[in-house]
């Protein structure tokens, strides 16, 4: 196995040649958006996709931000309250949220429970966005 290229996102695991399996229990946790979000968890980058398993503590979340890559968020636990391009949504477990590229959005866990979500972004940019 050769060395993997550097990750786009600081602290993220970059998949290298011959790496096909990643245990999110052992991949280092990073902040999903250090300047604007409480989301944290393991993140793995490939050539064209970035995936992460993130947690937001109850009542916390992400301030308005955007990123040049599109994003999908699949809710595993808790309820995610988000505002996307001015539209408010409540996403319960089992729902999937789409955020188009360059769209200002914010979101947080309701006060009742943490939110755990699986996220996917295209690798045209890092996991991190830009605070609005």
Structural class: mainly beta
Strand content: over 45%
The CATH architecture assignment turns out to be: Sandwich
What is the rounded Rg? 14 Å
Task: Report the mean per-residue pLDDT as an integer.
Answer: 96
Name of the CATH superfamily: Jelly Rolls
What does this structure look like?
27% of the residues are buried. The chain has a single domain, classed as Jelly Rolls (Sandwich), CATH 2.60.120.10. The chain contains no helices and 12 strands. The N and C termini lie far apart (41 Å). Strands 1, 2, 3, 4, 6, 9 and 11 form a 7-stranded mixed beta sheet that branches. Strands 8-7-10-5-12 form a 5-stranded antiparallel beta sheet, with no helix packed on it. A hairpin with a 2-residue loop joins strand 7 (80-84) and strand 8. By secondary structure, the chain is mainly beta. The chain is globular, with a radius of gyration of 14 Å. The protein has strands at 13-14, 29-31, 40-45, 49-56, 61-66, 71-77, 80-84, 87-91, 96-99, 105-109, 115-122, 130-131.
What's a quick, concise take on this entry?
This protein is mainly β and 132 residues long. It contains no helices and 12 strands.
Summary tags:
132 residues; mainly beta; Jelly Rolls; 7-stranded mixed beta sheet; 5-stranded antiparallel beta sheet; 0% helix
How does the SSE layout of this entry go?
Elements: E1 13-14, E2 29-31, E3 40-45, E4 49-56, E5 61-66, E6 71-77, E7 80-84, E8 87-91, E9 96-99, E10 105-109, E11 115-122, E12 130-131
Parallel strand pairs: 1-3
Antiparallel strand pairs: 2-3, 3-4, 4-11, 5-10, 5-12, 6-9, 6-11, 7-8, 7-10
């Amino acid at each position: 196995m050769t060395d993997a290229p550097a990750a786009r996102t600081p602290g993220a695991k970059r998949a290298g040649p011959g790496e096909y399996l990643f245990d999110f229990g052992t991949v280092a946790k990073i902040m999903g958006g250090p300047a604007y979000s409480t989301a944290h968890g393991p993140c793995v980058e490939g050539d064209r996709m970035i995936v992460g398993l993130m947690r937001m503590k109850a009542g916390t979340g992400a301030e308005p931000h955007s990123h040049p890559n599109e994003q999908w968020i699949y809710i595993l636990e808790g309820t995610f309250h988000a505002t996307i391009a001015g539209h408010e949504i409540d996403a319960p477990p089992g729902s999937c949220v789409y955020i188009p590229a360059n769209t200002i959005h914010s979101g947080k866990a309701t006060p009742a429970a943490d939110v755990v979500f699986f996220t996917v972004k295209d690798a045209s940019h890092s996991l991190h966005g830009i605070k609005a």
